[in-house]
Amino acid sequence: MTEKYVYRFTEGDKDMKDLLGGKGANLAEMKKLGIPVPPGFTITTEACRAYLKDDQVPESLDVEVTHALREVEQEMGKKLGDDSNPLLVSVRSGAKFSMPGMMETVLNIGLNDVSVEGLSKMSGSDRFAWDSYRRLIQMYGKTVLDIDGDLFSDALDGLKESKGIDNDVDLTVDDLKELVDQYKKIVRDATGEDFPQDPRKQMDLAIEAVFRSWNTERAHIYRRRERIPHDLGTAVNICTMVFGNMGDTSGTGVCFTRDPSTGHTGVYGDYLVNAQGEDVVAGIRNTLSLEDLEKIDKKSYDELLAVMEKLETHYRDMCDIEFTIENGKLWLLQTRVGKRTASAAFRIASQLVDERLITKDEALTRVTGEQLTQLLFPQFDADAKKEVITKAMAASPGAAVGEVVFNNAQAVERTNAGASVILVRRETNPDDLEGMVCSAGVLTARGGKTSHAAVVARGMGRCCVVGAEALTVNEAAGTVTVKGSDRVLKAGDIIAIDGSSGEVFYGDVPVVDSPVLTYISEGLEAGLAAAADEATKELVTAVDRILSHADEMRRLKVRANSDNPEDSERARAFGAEGIGLCRTEHMFLGDRRQLVEKVILAENEEQQEEAFKALRPLQRDDFVGILKAMDGLPTTVRLLDPPLHEFLPNLTDLSIKLAVKEAKGEEITAEEQKLYDTVRAQHEENPMLGLRGVRLGLKIRGLYYLQIRAIAEACAIRIQDGGDPRPEIMVPLIGSVRELQIIRDDAERIIGEVNEEYGTSLDLPIGCMIELPRAALTSHDIARAADFFSFGTNDLTQTTWGFSRDDVEATFFNEYFDLAVFGVSPFESIDVNGVGRLVKMGVDRGKDANPDIHCGVCGEHGGDPASIHFFEKAGLDYVSCSPFRVPVARLEAGRAAVANETEADFL
Questions:
Q1: Is 425 helix (H, G, I), strand (E, B) or coil?
Q2: Which of 452, 549, 854, 869 is catalytic?
Q3: 3-state SS track over 246-262
Q4: Which residues does residue 396 pair with via DSSP β-bridges, in sequence order?
Q5: Is 452 one of the annotated active-site residues of the chain?
Q6: What is the CB-side half-sphere exposure of residue 299 using CA atoms within 13 A?
Q7: pLDDT (0 to 100) of residue 433
Q8: Residue 801 burial by CB count (10 A; 0-12/13-18/19+): exposed, middle or buried?
């Protein structure tokens, strides 16, 4: 049976995003709701994937498009490109996940030298017809024919300058005809062919252009950042054109059912009279507000508000809506759940609970750990002295300070040099994505809250200020002129932008802790006291409400990785329920390195024991401090893990030092020679797979004896001081149960000796890390000798993939991203199908063999939101992450608990 590639808007619904893309599915849903949507149809994502695979349009697609197009023609009583009553259509992308501005759109398909006259007669406006024609040639040339868009923009600007006008709407019919001729010449000069006059050819080539736009560099960059799979493809929506550029009774706009920047309820949006949709999104004209629309066209305004309420109630979320008014008739062109800032996400989720549109569980699914992270960033100090350059529109909150840069190349160059940068543009377009990604903030002279800069910045969590009309940005000259001032900014000048107030400052501005961070670390009362205004207090309250519910719902415990009392106290303040990884190798560096050298260089057990005696009280005091900070909570201490070479001088450095001495005729001492010989003997080609972890503990038995005794003695001391210490001893790099059994026997013997010395009855849990594939595969054996497992997913990823992390990320990961070998680094987010299977296997087999065993993860994945959702389904008991990520892990663990996900989603 032939694949069905085309669906009418009357055939789909909002649950068909995989097939119809977000835009197509939502157009179909609005049609079902009786909302005025122009007739049209959607070409599926499967058609796109087939095109990208075979580099040609599936044969049956042409036939299906013809049938669907004729149905639209019959419904409208028009024919595509007709010379008297032409049907015009738009060709727009629409992937499953929103990718604003990343792919292509072409409007006014069907216009040519003949049909433009028919459109003129049909509309009664020569100006409207010729304005539409020039727009088609401009968009088609840039999008379909891949002509430099600046050629068209320069021609338009040059014509306006020669006529002495500032705005496009002031161009006469003759001006527009002249512009069309110029645009045609640009097409001919660039391609060697005339602009296509066949309307069907225009549509077919536009469809292919949208398919190809899935694989543009900017689309790849965006998907990589947003973790969108590269193999989904985009749908294509063919929609009857309705025109906002037919005069003063027409217009186009974008609106939100709530403020996407703050989350406040109200009427928010941008509107342009006598314009088409791309004028609003591109930000090339500063917009009017929806309040202005109420004054201009009260009937359409009231209809729009009714539709906004209907859609928000139906989707039970803030909606982003594109609309056009054609001669007083309202048409809806798109809706989707709107992108929003982090602060807006928490406010809106809390508001929707109060309005009884969603439950508290659903509120958890409306926010993310990444958004919470953004709220923990610092803000500008309200009491600091500031020099205000201008105040514009606050589009995406945050506090950003950096050097002025004008384009992608400057942004990338200065960021790579370690600088913080602010991308300053007249307006942004999709090609600016690379610069936006590496900038601390974005500032534009034009545009509104729904412009490209604002929408993309909000989605990325970037600070953004738009519509700064007082600024004249001249990228070619590399200057920003401030109107009414002698101030001229140049590349490299330091500015600061406040995405919450819209203010732009000259020079550096100091920052202070976020009130949300104060709440996280000190409690609700302190967070509210730190809030500067009622809006911020509302935000702190919303975060508390949702995070508290996450704590109530989550099954996973959240611990922290900490090596010292200070970090341990911070982790506890952030809500950590224990220490999941206390690395001990850091305790042997600095002044203690020489003592470790003595252990390694010792010629007999007496010399080794002398070094151990010196180390033991130092190590014991380390553990006393950490156990005190985490009193009453589990503290998992990992025995020494790194290879010995990390505690010895570098072999190359030693070789050079001795060679230089020899060349100068200087004597090499016996100690220097002994050190060199030892370092050379200990040298390994691949030390991360060599003598480290438990292997080192079995070769130099005294090292682990020292650590185990120090842990036990610290525990005994804390008990004598009235404390409640709960240390757990963790053995790293276990590959065989026999390795763990030997260390466990030693540990139990040493703990028994400490009990006799201190009069205690310590029974400390002893477990191991699962960071080798063999350990996961034989976890049913290892579990019989372990009280707990902790999955070291960093090393488990290295050993499963055969990657050396320090090398691969810099050498070929970029190519792997481009080739879609993986969409995100497996060191950043768990490789579910590979490493994840080993984790799941280790948990299942371990608990089968030892039902009392508890399992956690202590790699960097423990703080990664996507990985936490996997760990919930894999059956882990806790995750452990850096102290700063503890609140994020708490939130994501709660979200994972209420998510309606199945094991099949992961494995």
A1: strand
A2: 452
A3: CCCCCEEEEEEEECCCC
A4: 464
A5: yes
A6: 9
A7: 81
A8: middle
Separation CA 269–CA 570 (nearest Å):
42
| CA-wise closest residue to 768 among 796, 798, 790 | 790
Amino acid at 381: D
The pLDDT tens digits of the residues spanning 70-86 come to 999 999 999 998 988 89
- Work out the burial of residue 166: count CB atoms within 10 Å of its CB; fewer than 13 is exposed, 13-18 middle, 19 or more buried: exposed
Six-digit token string for 123: 């509309």
The token pair that represents 887 in the structure block: 């609140």
Q: CA-CA distances (angstroms) from residue 398 to 78, 425, 606?
A: 50, 18, 60
SS3 for 715-774 is HHHHHHCCCCCEEEEEECCCCCHHHHHHHHHHHHHHHHHHHHHHCCCCCCCEEEEECCHH
Tokens for 792, please give them: 């070291």
What lies within 8 Å, CB to CB, of 100 at 6+ separation is 339, 452, 455, 456, 459
Q: Contact, 664 vs 616, CB < 8 A?
A: no
State yes or no: is 220 an active-site residue.
no
| Six-digit token string for 607 | 């010399």
The residue length of the chain stands at 907
Backbone angles phi, psi at 193, to 5 degrees: -130, 160
What would the pLDDT profile of 788-827 be if each residue is shown by its tens digit?
999 999 999 999 999 987 778 768 887 887 777 887 889 8
d(CA 606, CA 604): 5
pLDDT in tens, 252-283: 999 999 998 888 888 888 899 988 766 666 66
Do residues 43 and 206 lie in contact, with contact meaning Cβ atoms separated by under 8 Å? no
Report d(CA 648, CA 732) in Å as an integer.
Answer: 21
Once rounded to an integer, what is the mean pLDDT over residues 866-890?
Answer: 94
* Residue 334, strand partner residues: 322
pTM: 0.79
Strands 634-638 and 726-731 turn out to be parallel
Ramachandran class of 285: left when φ > 0, alpha when ψ lies in -120 to 50, beta otherwise:
beta
pLDDT digits (tens, 9 = 90+) for 572-623: 999 999 999 998 887 777 677 777 777 777 777 888 888 888 889 999 999 9
Sheet strands (E) in 589-738: 634-638, 726-731
Distances (CA, A) of 117 to 123, 184, 342, 575, 642: 10, 17, 49, 70, 78
The residue annotated as part of the active site, out of 220, 858, 861, 869, is 858
B/e letters for 742-764, b = 16+ CB within 10 Å, e = fewer, are bbbebbeebbeebeeebebebeb
Sign of the dihedral through C-alpha 169, 170, 172, 178: negative
- Mean pLDDT, residues 525-543: 93
Residues 49 and 9: their CA atoms lie apart, in Å, by 21
Of all helices (H) and strands (E), which one includes residue 109?
A: strand 105-109
